[in-house]
Fold this sequence. Notes:
The chain is 31% helix and 20% strand. With 181 residues, the chain is α+β, with helices and mostly antiparallel strands. The chain has a 6-stranded mixed beta sheet, with helices on both faces.
Amino acid sequence: MDESSLQLCTEDFFLILKYFMKKETYQFSYDVFDSIEELDEQDAWLLNEAREVTSSAYAPYSNFNVGAVAKLSNGEIVAGTNQENASYPVGLCAERVLLSSAATLYPKIPIETIAISYNNTMGASSHPISPCGMCRQSLVEYQERVNHPIRLILSGLNGKVIVVAKAGMLLPLSFGSIDLK
């Protein structure tokens, strides 16, 4: 078989493959508010707490202080802040500090909502940020462990606020415990 025939066969193969291939789409929606004033009283309070706790972050290398505050299903409030160290970037994100604290202090108690905020001491802190990939995985795993979705409120020290109904929406096709079976 010559090279042009082989190329034609390869093209035919991929056309046939495309015909039988199933295409799926992942989409999700979230709520966007212009400011904290548009939130209900409980969400505004939780976000204010997250904004305040950024001052407890230890981020001398990045100068990017992150605070996360959670309301658990039993009404308890748990907070976490990012914790850097000299072997940067081997620090802990606020979300994972919070999840570790919640799991230790209140084992098996679901988290209802987490508000996440930040203070970029070297620049602007006026738009929402989203958890990093490692934190997204940790949030999905926590939801799976307690069998309850975690709602997220994302914002800077001011400006727009994003509310995501389920943290798992931020990590489609996530890797979980079922994959290890």
